[in-house]
Amino acid sequence: MIAAISWIPKGVSKAEPVFAEPPSKDEIEEIISNTLTSVGDEDENEEDANKQNDEVAHALTVAGAIGKPSNGNSDDISDALKDLNMDNYDEEDDKGFELFSSGNGDLFYQSNELDPYINDKNEEYDSEDMEDMIINPTDSVVVCARTEDDVNFLEVWILEDANTRDMNLYIHHDIIIPEFPLCTAWLDCPLKGGEKGNFLAVGSMGPSIEIWDLDVIDEVEPCVVLGGKEKRKKGKNGKKKSAKYKEDSHTDSVLGLAWNKEYSNTLASASADKRVKIWDIVAGKCTITMDHHSDKVQAVAWNHRAQQILLSGSFDHTVALKDVRTPSHSGYTWSVSADVESLAWDPHTEHSFAVSLEDGTIQCFDVRTAMSNATSVQNATFTLHAHDKSVTSVSYNTAAPNLLATGSMDKTVKLWDLSNNQPSSVASKEPKAGAVFSISFSEDNPFLLAIGGSKGKLQLWDTLSDEGISRRYGKFNRNQPQSVA
Description:
One of its GO terms (cellular component) is nucleus. With about 475 residues, this protein is mainly beta.
């Protein structure tokens, strides 16, 4: 399944991503040890099974880390499984799987020069493979947070020649991540010194937020981890102590993330622990914790023009507005008819936002009608029964005013004209995505809509190919198709 999608702005990715330095033996053993001690406070009957599952998952990570650099082939995981002989995992002898044994053939060499089994130590990678690794400034990049067969990873896709008949989409590389991903947010905050970067924050079933460098291939650890659990230490009796959460960490799944473009070191997070947190990414710490909701917080969104203003939506059937400069203020709230699934500010105005709900409806609100306590659903500027099942994701088109896309568990994606607060259906599509979990219009190619769902295959919809969209919104297309010889 694909749980979340993020477009990466054109031109920010390195033309030639770098390969991560292979970890040393000690580093690999530390990675495995850290993972095996992060099981948490589970009962003893389940501990052995969970430990074995973690060993298998991180054996895959280590295999990828100490192998040759990935060429972006989507079969890397399958190859790693074959190398580890996972089909016969349960049939191995008592020695188990060893990363380092006494046999010379099992040694890891820091360079090709030291490896006696490589004949051509100066062999270059195939020129076509290297050409495929280059990211051109004109390429569009989109990242999917995906899970398949209990393996979690970020897929970095390249879209070449967007808005032409030669449009080509392929996987550039992927990053294996330890936890089941739920949400993502791209950011360019300078985490590695004075220069801006190309990073993706990932919220997951665990309480931590991991930030990964998208310009590094075969990375085995994130650049920054916000929150999470402390390493478990053994007590005097030899048994592991219960894991404790890091200071100011979330204590349950991270369900929503939002990066602040104006204050680039700032990230907001929403969690099943009923809290909203504001993080200083550079310092690696939480600066504000807000507990103004009484149930799981599903989504957060910064206002595009007044970027101290944050929306949050919850399973408590409310949407809240807070000015983070005065977090102790009660803020403003709106009641909605069901659990909140997603939120989005209208990019063409600073005072309007849409919220999608579990009951299949979309509601739009005007913050100028805000009250300091929750008001009735009648205060919505409109309520639209958009889908037959939960509306999991919404996305405004940044080029065409009043154009909103909605994605649903009913397996459909729909486009709506919201003019005059009287929404009307413009187009509908059932992509081959299964139940739809995430949709996102590209800002660089505004009429390209990325779609991810339960089938785990990224789908792109060129919405201008629909006659109704082309006729009504074609004038807003700033990327006119180029003629093909």
